[in-house]
Amino acid sequence: MAIQIRSKTLRWLIVASTVVIAIIVFVQVFWLQRVYRLERRQFNINITSGIKGLVHNLNLSSHGNLNFEKDVELVIPEDYLLKIDRIPALDSASSFFSQELTDYNVLTDCQMSIYDATQKKFVASKYIDMPNSYTAENDKFTTPVFKKQYSYISFYFPHRSRYIIMQMIFWIVSSAILLLVLIGFGISLFYLYHQRFLNETQKDFVNNFTHEFKTPLSVIKIAADVLHNPAITEKPEKLKNYAEIIISQTTHLQNQLNRMLVIAYTEHSTLPLQKEIFDANTLIQQAVNNINPLIEEKSGNLTIEFGTKNSYINADKSYILLAYINILENAVKYSVNPAIRIKTYVEGNDFCTSITDNGIGIDKRQQKKIFNKFYRITYGEIHQSKGFGLGLNFVKKIMDAHKGNITVESALGGGSTFIIKIPRH
Ligand code: ADP
Prior knowledge:
By secondary structure, the protein is an alpha+beta fold. The protein is about 50% helix and about 20% strand. The strands form three sheets. It has a five-stranded antiparallel β-sheet with strand order 1-2-5-3-4. It has a five-stranded mixed β-sheet with strand order 7-9-10-12-11, covered by helices on one side. Strands 6-8 form a two-stranded antiparallel ribbon. A hairpin with a 2-residue loop joins β9 and β10. α5 packs antiparallel against α6, α5 crosses α7 and α8 packs antiparallel against α9. The chain is rod-shaped, with a radius of gyration of 42 Å. The two termini are about 50 Å apart. The mean pLDDT is about 85.
C-alpha cells in the first residue's frame, strides 16, 4: 500500500527540514570560519618562526635575542617588517628564508625588500618564487613602502589570502557539495508539497461540490414525490409552491455547475469570491424556502426573527446562501422533531445570524473539530444520518474567505446554536 503523506504533514516536514538545514548551514559556516582562523594563525606562526630562524642565522639583531613584539611588526596581514640594525646581504638572506619557508611548508611567494632608513626607500628587493605555489605567473603587485625611522626587511606575501583559502579547499568544496545537496533536497521537498497540495485541493473541490449537489437533489426528490401524489391537483396553491421549489433548486444547481467550471479553471487555494451588495435577510428567507421541504418531512417548524433592517452586506451571495443552507440542513438532520430558531442582528460592522436547533447537540470537546474536513461525530444509532463531514468545513472556508467567522454553542442533548458573522462591507 502506498504511503500517502498529507500536505499538512508535509508542510511540517518542510518546516522541520528548513530548521535542520539552517542549523547545518550555520554550523558549516561556523566551522569554515574557525578553520580559516586556524589556517591564518598557522600561517602567522610559520612565517614568524621562519623570520626567527633567519634572525638567528644571520645574526641580524644587535641585542641577541629577538623581541618579536618590538622588532617584528605586522603592518598589514600580508606584510611583516623586521627591524634591523645593519643591512644584510639580500641574496643570502633570501635563499635562507626560502629554505625556512620550504621547511615550514609555506608554499606561497614572498617579496623580500630591504628598507634603508637613511635613504628612506627600498635599497634591495628579491622575489622568492616558491615551487608549487598556488599563484599564477605574471601576477602584478607592488610592495607597499612604510616610511619608518629605522631600517627593516619587509616580508611581503602578495598572495597570502589566496594561499590560506587554498589550504582550506577541501573544507570549502565539501561544504559547497553539502549545500548543493541540501538545496536539491529542499527543492524536491517543496515540489512534492506543491504536487500534494494541488492534489488535495482538487479532491476537496470535488468533495465539496458533490456535497453541495446532494441537498438540492434531495429537496427536488421530496418536491417531486409530493407532485407525484394525484391529490395534489386539488391543491393548486401547493402544486405551484412545489413546482417553484423544483425550479429554484434546478436554477441553483445550474448556477453551481457554472461556478464549478469557473473555479476548476482558476488555481486559487482560497475560494474566489464574486462580491455584490444584497439583502442578507432576503437570502436567509431563500435558504429557509430551500430547506422547508426537509423540515416539513420531519413535521418540524422554523421561526425567524429579523432583528435588524441593516441587513445589506457586500459578499458572495451564492456562497453565503450555501453556508446558510448547510447550517439549516444540519439543524434538521441532527434533530428528531426540528424546532429551529433564526435570529439576525448587527454587531459592529458584522451582520450576525444565529441558528438554534433542539437537536442532539455537540459535546464541548468535539465543538472545534466539527469544522475540520471529514470530521463526523458518531453516536451510534442517530448516526444513521448520511454525510461526509464536509459541510461545516466548507462553511468555515466560506467564512474565512469573507474574513467572517462561524462559532458554535452547544451541549450534548441540549441543541446547538451556530453563529455566523459576516463583515457587512
Ligand atoms: P456531515 O453533516 O456531512 O456529517 P458537517 O461538516 O456538516 O458534516 O458536520 C460535521 C459534524 O458535526 C456532523 O457529523 C455532526 O456530528 C455535527 N453537527 C453538525 N451540525 C450539527 C447540529 N446542528 N447538531 C448536532 N450535531 C451537528
